[in-house]
Write a structure and sequence with these properties.
The chain contains 19 helices and 9 strands. By secondary structure, it is of the alpha/beta class.
Length: 512
Amino acid sequence: MRQYHYHQSVGTTSSVGSSLLALLKMRCRRVFFLVVCVLAVVVLLSVLNGHKMISSHVSVLMSDANRNVANAHEGIRNFLSQQLPNQPQTQADPQTGGPNEKTASQEQIPNRNIPPADHIIWPNLNQSALSITSTTPIPQSHSTAKLKGGASNGPGAKPQSAHSNGPVVKPQSAQPLTPSKQQCSPRRNIVFFKMHKCSSSTVQNILFRYGEKNDLDFVIPPAGNYLGHSPFNKRFMLKLPTREYNILCYHTRFSATGMAEVMPKDSVYVSILREPVAMYESMFTYTKYEAIYHLNAPNPLKQFLESPRKYYDLHGGKDHAKNPMLFDFGLENHQKDDQFFIDNMIEKLDKRFDLVMMTEYFHESLILFKELMCWTMDDIVYFTLNARSKSSVLRDITPKMKEQIKQWNLGDLKLYNHFNKTFWQKVRDFGEERMKREITELIERNEQLYKYCIAKVSDNDGKVWHPPGVKVESLQLKPSAKNDPQCAAMARTELPYTALLVKKMKSKYHLR
C-alpha cells in the first residue's frame, strides 16, 4: 500500500512542482548575482588597494554568500516537507550504509548475477583428471572396452563384419576440427623413431599417408626399409635436392645429432614403447634367437631365460637380446648393465621427445599424437599392419618366465616405467572424458573403413616379408575397394609403400 500511496501523492502535487520550480529559479538568480558582485568587488579591491586587504574582504564576502546559499537550501527543504507529507523515507543500504537508490520497478527485476569465473563451464577445458597410478602395474586403458561384436580393440584388434546385409557404403569424412584445434596449424615435420615390435609399422603407415597426401619429403632408404643398423647418419638415406626433410619414420638407431642434420629445428620427436615382457617375447621370436643361440628345447625362450648370460656372452647377436628398446635408442651393448648410462640415456630421451606412446594404449596414444600434431581424426585412422598371426605368438609364458624377462631387461623396464608416467600425465592433461569421446569416434571410424575396405586377413601372402617360420598377417581388399585410394593406402605394407614413395620423390625432383 505504501507504494500505491507514494505514486498517488506524486500525482496530486503537480501544481506544487510549478511553485517549487519558480522558487528555485528565484533563489538561484539571487545566489548567482551575489557571486558576481563578490568577484567584481575582489577585482576592484585588487586594483585600488593592492593585495594586503584582499584576504579579509574575500572571507567576509564569501561567508555572506555561504549563508545565503544555506538559507536557500533550508527554505527548499521546509517547502517540500510541507507539500509532500506522505513521501516514504529513504532506507539505508545494508551493504554500503548509504542511501538505497532502488525504485519500485527495479526491486521487481530478478537478480541475474554472472557466476564467478571458476563456476563457468568454458569449452575444451581439461578439468577432469584420471585417478591413475603412474607406475607399474599399468592403469586400465580407455580402449580396453569391447568393440561391437565382442572383440577387444587395440592395435591388434580386428573390427567385426558389417551388422547389416545391405551394401557397405564408404563413410564420410570426419567432422571439422573442434574450436580448440582451429587455433593451431597442422605440423608437418616429424621424427617418428620406429621401435621394433611396438606396433610402429601401423603408426608409420599413418605418416606415409599424411606425407603422400601433402607432398612431403621423406628421409627414406634408397632400398629396403632400414636407414642403416648403426646410429643414424645421412649417408644411409636417399639424397634429395633439398636441405631439410619433413618426415623420418624408418628403422634406424637413434642419433639426435645425425637426425638434426636433415630435419628442421621445429620437428616433433615421437616414439612408441611396449611393455617389456610382451616386447621381448615378440623380439625373441621374430629375430629367431633360437637359431642364433642354438636352442633346441620345445620352448626356446624358456631355455634361454634359465641361463641368459651364458648364451649372451658366448654368442653373437647381442643387439636386441638384452634391453632391445634402449639399444635402439642408442645404448651400446657394453652399457646395458650400467645404471649410470641407463639413467643418463633416459634423461636425454625425456628432454628430446615430445611424446612417447604406449602400444598397450594405442588409441590413447593416437589421440595424443593427433593433438600434438594438430591433425584431424581422418589423418590417424588405421588398419593394423605387420602383426604376427596367433599361431606365431608364444602363449606359454609362465609367471616365472615373465619375472626372468624383467630381471634380464631391467634397463628397458626402467625406460618403460619412466615414460609410462609421462604418458598418463599427458592423458590427465588432455582430459579423461574428452579422451573417451575421441577414442569412441576413432574406433567407430576404423570399424566403418574396415567394413568398407577389407575382405579378409591372410597369413600366407607371399608379397609380405616375414622371417622363416613366422607368419605375418596381411589385409586383402574387397573387389569394390581395390580402386579406392584410401583403402589401398591403409592396407599397403611398408616395403611396397616405400617403393612407391621413392618413385614419387624421384619424379618430383627429376632424379633417376
